Amino acid sequence: MELSTYLPYLVNRLGQRFVSEITPALNKAGVNIQSWRVLIALYQGGKQTVGDLSELTSINFSTLSRVLDRMEDKNLARRQRGADDARSFTVILTSKGKAVTEKILPYAKDLEVLATSDFTEAELNKLRELLSKLYIGLGSGNKVKERMAG
């Protein structure tokens, strides 16, 4: 296995580059990368359960709980107890959270445009398709564990 072609390394390296590039805009807005993922998920998808938000943002449940605590302290989002199940919460974007998201969004869009400027539309669509396929393939992680154990 060669590190320079190892997919987890390449994907992580790319993700870290995006995070490094967007961090100044996030800092200026007073949010971190995890809060940004929650903000954009709520902005685009509307209110969501904590479980759905955890899945969508790839932030584990206990970490997400702390992120939401900080976001509530800053009045960016709020949790609302479920009507049917008192143990479940729905997360809602506040008007301040919407305004912060809309300040960061142009920078995030420009960053994607810059990063993909050498791609054709077909290549970009294929890249998105392949990354989604790669993510879904990892959902069968138990198969890997079974293979390693067996």
Taken in chain order, the helices and strands follow as HHEHHEEHHH
List unreliable stretches of 5+ residues. none
CATH class, named: Mainly Alpha
Find the count of extended strands (DSSP E, 2+ residues).
3
Oligomeric state of the chains in view: single chain
CATH architecture: Orthogonal Bundle
CATH-defined topology: Arc Repressor Mutant, subunit A
**What average pLDDT do the residues reach?**
91
Q: How would the global form be characterised?
A: globular
Q: In the residues, how many domains can be counted? A: 1
Task: Provide structural commentary.
The protein is mainly α and 150 residues long. It has one domain (3-141): Winged helix-like DNA-binding domain superfamily/Winged helix DNA-binding domain (Arc Repressor Mutant, subunit A), CATH 1.10.10.10. It is built from 7 helices and 3 strands. It has helices at 7-29, 33-45, 50-57, 61-73, 95-115, 121-138, 141-149, and strands at 48-49, 77-81, 89-93. Helix 1 crosses helix 5 (95-115) and helix 2 (33-45) packs across helix 5 (95-115). It is globular.
